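Q: Convert this sequence to structure tokens.
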Amino acid sequence: MTEEHRYRPATQAAQALGWVEPATGGVAPAIYPASTYVRQAVPGRTKYLYSRDDNPTYEQAEQLLTSLEGGSAAMLFSSGMAAAATLIQGLSSGDRVVLPEVVYWGVRRVAKDIASGWGIGFDFVPNGDLDALARAVQPGRTRLVWLETPSNPTMAVADIEACAAIAHRAGALVVVDSTFASPVLTRPIELGADIVMHSGTKYLNGHSDVIAGALVAKEPSPFWEKLIAVRRYAGAVLGPFEAWLLLRGMRTLFLRVRAQSENAMALARHFEDHPSILHVLYPGLESHPDHAIARRQMTGGFGGMLSLRIRGGEEAALRAWGACQLFKVATSLGGVESLIEHRASIEGADSPVPKDLLRVSVGIEDVQDLIADLENAVKAV
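A:
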């Protein structure tokens, strides 16, 4: 892209920053599968030494994501959980992390079952409760304040700017898991976040054919340098073919997310007052408790994720879940196909998710077909 004109994010994504394959002029990026590289003689060295550290295919996707998020650098990982675990591995014994009470179950498992044995403390606060966050943050001890917005799967929207002000006063860094929003709808760094995390498996890839994760830094820091070292030595790097798939997916990110957001809004409005539905959890609805925050920090839509609380409790929710035909009964989200899942049964007995809740990932199908499928499913209740 030229320096004279700063192209908008959707253009940057579609053009992959204007990159052209140098050897042939191809408009599709190449895949560099090499695991190692010939080194220059002393006193020089090649840019690439070993693909656990760096690879040209990683860099293309990292540079695009950095630009879309407005950061200074990005790192790809072998999964979203690898990115999350690296953040925790970058801490020291005695450090503390503030987490939302309802957070992606894998993060909760790492916190409770693994990292607590490393001498790292975790404080859980209600999603979006600023007073509780202020009480939980301990100056000099709290290293990270972890936000997930919208939250998985209760769809709470955290006020990133307000949370960042609380965290920064105490000397803590702010990490935002922005998987549900993607850079199409929210740019957390502009709102005060220090690091943005993504499960690249979801909206960034968008085709349910790669497992990937990513971190994006607002600016260089000693903590970011430590995270680079953790990825290098732990080997949690993405493979070149997977990085290529991720980059290919990001080129259609804006088209997909906008279409999914439109479909999700139509579904939310249709079922908001449905007799079989207790609550529709979607930040685009005026009835959502965090709607005002969502309107302020989510631009261009409210995302393709929503949750339905089924009237009649867990048994009714399970019957509706099993009755879906067009919606695939499957884990994951963000793909072009619509998925539905009963999260409490997937997460296990200690899940804080309401047992009457179905999490819905809305795809790009005709929305009338999606409405009809859910109508037939809730009739089973």
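The chain has two domains: 9-250, 254-379.
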